[in-house]
Amino acid sequence: MGVLEASLEPRLRGIVADLLGVGPEQLAPHVSLTDDLAADSLDLVEIALAIETELRIEIPQRAIEKVRTYGDLVQTALAHAEPAEVAAAEPSAPVPVVSARVVRAGGDPALPLVERSGKLTPYVVQDITDDALWAGHGSSLEVTVQATATEASVDLVMDHFAWLGERGVKVSVRRDADALAAPPPGA
After folding, report:
1. What's the confidence (pLDDT) of residue 70?
2. 47 vs 30, 79, 137, CA distance in Å?
3. Torsion on CA atoms 126, 130, 131, 135, rounded to nearest 10
4. What mean pLDDT comes out for the span 29-49?
5. pTM of the prediction?
6. For residue 115, is it left (φ>0), alpha (ψ between -120 and 50) or beta?
7. Cβ–Cβ contacts within 10 Å for residue 60, how many?
8. Which of 35, 40, 130, 159 is catalytic?
9. How does pLDDT run across 106-115, given as a tens digit for each residue?
10. Strands across the sheet with 170-175, in order?
11. What is the overall mean pLDDT for the chain?
12. Alpha-carbon distance 187 to 169, whole Å?
C-alpha cells in the first residue's frame, strides 16, 4: 500500500461505511457495492459527492459508473486524487442533524405542513426541498441545526437551501439553541 493509499483508504472507508450503513470491516476490496451492499446508482452518486466534498477528489460520472467493488472505488479515487489535496483535506466534520418545518403562506406556524428531521444526506436535502417547493410561493422553510453543529455546518445547511428564496420560499436556518431563544414566528 502506497503512502497516498494509506492516507486515503481509511477516510474513504469511513465515508462509504457511513453512507451505506455498514460496518467498516465489511469493506474488503472484493465486496460488490451493488450486489453485496445493495447500493444503487443514487448511492454511488452520493458517495462520489461525499468524496469530492470531504476528500477534495473529483471523480467523473463516467468513472463512477464503472465502479463495481470497494476495491474499484479505492483505485478510482486514487487515480483521480491529487496527493497534496488529499493530504490537505481535513477529516470531515460529522454530517449535521437537522429538523425542518414547512409552513404554507398565511398558514399557522403552530401547524406546519410538513416536519422532517435526520442527518443532512442528499436524500434528506431533496425531500426538504421538494416539500418547500410543493408548499408554494410565500411558504416558509425553517431549518434547525443541532446545537453542537459548527458554524461551517450551519453555513453548509444554508447553502443547500438558500436558492429556494429565488422560488419565493422564505428560508431560515438556525442552531437549536438559537431556536429556543428566539420568539415564535408572528410573536
Report:
1. 94
2. 18, 16, 33
3. 160
4. 91
5. 0.49
6. beta
7. 10
8. 40
9. 888 778 888 9
10. 114-119, 97-103, 140-145, 170-175
11. 83
12. 20
Q: How confident is the model over 88-131, as pLDDT tens digits?
A: 554 555 678 899 999 998 888 778 888 998 888 777 888 899 99
Query: For the chain, first and last CA: distance in Å?
Result: 61
What are the C-alpha distances in Å from 145 to residues 44, 75, 124, 186? 26, 35, 13, 21
**CA dist., res. 73 & res. 14, Å (int):** 13
C-alpha distances in Å from residue 140, one per residue of 104, 105, 185: 6, 7, 10
Query: What is d(CA 100, CA 103) in angstroms, rounded to the nearest whole number?
Result: 10
Here the cell at position 20 is 451505506
Q: Which helix (H) or strand (E) holds 118?
A: strand 114-119
DSSP helix/strand/coil, 178: helix
54: amino acid identity, one letter: E
**Residue 40 is among the residues annotated as catalytic for this protein:** yes
